[in-house]
Amino acid sequence: MNIGFDAKRAYHNNTGLGHYSRTLIRLLADYYPEHEYFLFNPKRTSRYNLKGRNLHEILPKGFSDTLLRAAWRSSWIKKDLIRTKIDLYHGLSHEVPIGIKKTGIKSVVTIHDLIPERYPGQYNPIDVKIYRRKFLYACQQADKIIAISDQTRRDIMEFYKIPGDKIEICNQSCSPVFSVLVGEEEKKRIAEKYNLPQQFFLSVGSVVERKNLLNVCKAFFLLRNDLDIPLVVIGDGGKYKQQVKDFILQHDLEKKIIFLSGHKNAKSDPAFLSTADLAVIYQSAIAMVYPSFFEGFGAPVLEALWSRLPVITSNVSCLPEVGGPGSFYVDPNSATEIADAMKKIYWDKELVTRMKEKGIEHTKKFTPSAYAASVMDVYKSLIDYKLH
Question: What pTM did the predictor assign?
Answer without folding.
Answer: 0.80
